[in-house]
Amino acid sequence: MRPLSPRCSWSSPSSSSWASTPSSAGRPAVRDVVVSGAGDGPGGAAGTDSSVRDSSHGPGRRQRSTIGAAGGRRRAADGRTRRSGLGLRALALGYLGLLLVLPVGLVFWRTFEHGVSPVLDALGDPSVVHAFKITGIVAFWTVLLNTVFGVGVALLLVRHRFPGRRVLSALIDLPLAVSPVVVGLALILVYGKFAPVGGWLEARGVQVIFALPGMVLATVFVSLPLVVREVAPVLEEIGIEQEQAAWTLGAGKVQTFRRITLPSIRWALAYGVVLTLARALGEYGAVAVVSGRLVDQTQTVTLVVEERFQNFDQTTAYAASVVLAAVAIVILVVINLLRPEERAR
Q: Distance (Å, rounded) from C-alpha 283 to C-alpha 80?
């Protein structure tokens, strides 16, 4: 058999493409062969190597060997990546299952193991109803105060440069590092009956500690960074160009904030508000210190759960816990519904 020329070699149609012109006999005459498939995956590389093995020599063979080795390394790397992903997935699911899903699932099961009627009777207890009322009031004022404060401080940190800006930014994150129990003790030292500020307020008929104002202050403190840390990155991202354009057209500060800034940060603000609400409903440590745990006066739902569980009233403790867990699940669903909207924006 006569050897093929270096520019023309026979291969399967899947690994080579032909450029031909019709001959006088009506059959295509080979003009050139363009070898393809070097980067078309494992099959392409192997097909190219086998199709030109008999007709290529020297540098061409070394190039094909290099391509084949690179494909093998890529397949090995892909295999290691898949195995690593499966291992991390199993670790994450196992960790969450043992720490979150199993305990919360057992609480739901123990709550309804004797039916729904005992749960409804427990939730109808006047002390429990009063605790839910107090929890709602504390959560409302916490969300309101931290929303106003959070948006204002985010605008101050992002839109202005002043001495001590970094110190203020660090102080915003302080509640995340301090124990809630320490927060409660610190508030007692400032607003207690025998403290300077607390004594001055009590002399004017305003009781802070062991009353509703102290519980609101403690909850506001522990949830302080949530709105700020959600709004500030969005303000940095959108810049100030649109606001400057509005000012150039004669808009005032309030009008610019209402028409330009607020629509731009609405999803981040909503996410911060939801997080603040969840934190306020579930707060225990700081509230337990400043509230005094007075039954039918300063008890929140978390305090009722702890008090009833220690007194062996497990039905009421489980029922109140299930309500808090259900609210947390609803909030989690709302957060996950807000996240895609924020990314799409």
A: 43
Burial of 64 (0-12, 13-18, 19+ CB in 10 A): buried
pTM attached to this predicted model: 0.72
Q: What are phi and psi of 278, to 5 degrees?
A: -65, -40
pLDDT digits (tens, 9 = 90+) for 107-123: 888 888 888 888 898 89
Contacts of 273 (CB under 8 A, 6+ apart): 143, 147, 227
Integer angstrom CA distances of residue 32 from 60, 123, 193: 16, 85, 97
Q: Quickly count: other Cβ atoms within 10 Å of residue 164's Cβ.
A: 8
Contacts of 235 (CB under 8 A, 6+ apart): 154, 155, 158, 159, 261, 264, 265
Beta strands in the chain (DSSP E): 16-22, 28-35
Residue 302 is encoded by which pair of tokens?
Answer: 């978390």
Summarize pLDDT for 124-170 with one digit per residue, the tens: 999 999 999 999 999 999 999 999 999 999 999 998 888 988 899 88
